[in-house]
Prior knowledge:
Layout: H1 2-21, E1 43-47, H2 54-57, H3 62-66, H4 70-83, E2 91-100, E3 104-105, E4 117-118, E5 126-134, E6 140-149, H5 168-182, H6 184-189
Parallel strand pairs: 1-2
Antiparallel strand pairs: 2-5, 3-4, 5-6
Amino acid sequence: MKLRTALxxxxxxxxxxxxxxxxxxxxxxxxxAPRALPAQGAVDVRWDNPxxxxxxxxxxxxxxxxxxxxxxxxxxxxRKRTEAQLAPGQRLSIEIxxxxxxxxxxxxxxxxxxxxxxxxxIYPPRMDLKFTLSxxxxxxxxxxERTLRDMSFLMGLNRTASATDPLRYEKRMIDTWAYREFxxxxxxxxx
Length: 191
């Protein structure tokens, strides 16, 4: 019995130590979680307090809505897709002001579905942002606020993300906006 108790205590200590040593933020609202992507390349992306995002404020399961690092993943994707559309020398600064992911939690299905996000056409993805596009000399080319929304997110093919990617609908919405807003050949043709 003493050996069993000692082994259990040792295993518990090892689990706690490994968790503390490698612990990283697993909620988007953690005060230690980043609020901007590290500076690199032509696109800077930042966001303020995810606790105020519609995804969390309007969620029927705020605990699940906070889990993970989906805000940072969306920001990284915004950087990747917009950077691909910029003309050489252009710089882009983006502030994400709100996110509502596709789908929602439906608690009326019972406790066995508390952590299940139901994807239905009544829960489209949405993202609000502000941006400033500058040329190589720092002159502002364009700036503004945009509300991205994909009301037909369940229709058509999503070529940029796999069917198992939990952010596939948000990524398609970002792809559409980045292409339309920052298409490099359109900007360079207007000069």
